[in-house]
């Protein structure tokens, strides 16, 4: 597409009425100075403070502005997914609306995607202006994410990221999966993932929109992403292996107890009085349950419309 825009800036927001005019002016100034064609897609995630009226006024003044308004608050993942589907630029950049992400980073992020040929470039807020209650859990999550995904990024949750357009069109976000877009991209076949140290600014307006629930949802979503990436299309490989292991352990204990009872301690102790008996029985029951879970998952997957949905890079 010869006239395709260079950049799509996707900005999810919730009650950020004060920062929007300043953010828009900043993005516009930086990209015009670097002569990059662009669009700014504001995704209003059910704001109640007049943010949408500001977006409408920005649209009237600047044809590069687009706006999408949700009827209610669905969350950041839903906003990003909708923005990704609407983006038309060769490079898609996401950034928060609270002015903590600097638009001055946009030209270099664009260069790393188009020149260095990265699929994804994730920002790293090396110097943060967040309270300890946020930075310490973030460090723990980033460490766990690196170990579980094999992607060596310092800051998975940085809102400032850049992607090839093909990447954002190939992944699906839901729940709170916006924290783990790089692993989703990797599992979709985009393996060239880079990182850039970016400026992190202190919040100028309003307050953070994320509560304590992120400390629970983050690890759960990480486990979901890793499991779906490795076993989403072959759940029996996971449940079957776990079931086989548990059943073999349980059966081995049961066989040992039976032989011991018949040939060595025929009248000394009843099987039901031995702790090993219950351990073995529990292991066999759990093994069967894992097998059944695997079979049910395969049945569900067999009837899924996306079972044979594969990402095709090119076709001749």
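Q: What amino acid sequence fits the structure above?
A:
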């Amino acid at each position: 597409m010869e006239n395709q825009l260079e950049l799509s800036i996707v900005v999810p927001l919730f009650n950020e009425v004060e920062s929007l005019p300043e953010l828009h002016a900043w993005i516009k100034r930086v990209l015009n100075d670097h002569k990059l064609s662009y669009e700014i897609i504001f995704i209003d995630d059910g704001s109640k403070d007049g943010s949408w009226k500001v977006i409408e006024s920005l649209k009237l003044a600047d044809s590069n502005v687009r706006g999408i308004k949700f009827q209610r608050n669905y969350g950041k993942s839903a906003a990003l997914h909708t923005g990704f589907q609407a983006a038309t630029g060769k490079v898609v950049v996401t950034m928060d609306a609270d002015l903590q992400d600097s638009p001055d980073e946009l030209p270099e992020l664009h260069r790393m995607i188009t020149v260095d040929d990265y699929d994804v470039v994730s920002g790293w807020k090396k110097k943060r202006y967040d309270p300890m209650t946020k930075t310490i859990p973030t460090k723990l999550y980033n460490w766990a994410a690196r170990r579980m995904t094999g992607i060596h990024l310092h800051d998975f949750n940085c809102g400032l990221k850049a992607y090839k357009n093909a990447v954002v069109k190939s992944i699906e976000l839901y729940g709170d999966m916006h924290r783990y877009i790089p692993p989703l991209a990797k599992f979709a076949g985009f393996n060239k993932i880079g990182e850039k140290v970016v400026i992190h600014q202190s919040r100028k307006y309003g307050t953070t929109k994320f509560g304590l629930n992120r400390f629970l949802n983050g690890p759960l979503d990480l486990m979901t992403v890793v499991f779906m990436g490795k076993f989403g299309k072959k759940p029996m490989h996971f449940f079957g292996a776990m079931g086989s292991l548990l059943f073999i352990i349980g059966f081995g204990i049961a066989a040992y107890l039976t032989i011991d009872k018949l040939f060595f301690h025929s009248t000394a102790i009843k099987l039901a009085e031995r702790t090993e008996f219950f351990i073995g029985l529990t292991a066999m029951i759990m093994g069967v349950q894992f097998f059944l879970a695997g079979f049910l998952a395969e049945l569900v997957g067999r009837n899924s419309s996306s079972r044979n949905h594969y990402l095709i890079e090119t076709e001749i």
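Q: And what stands out in the fold?
A: The longest strand covers residues 7-13.
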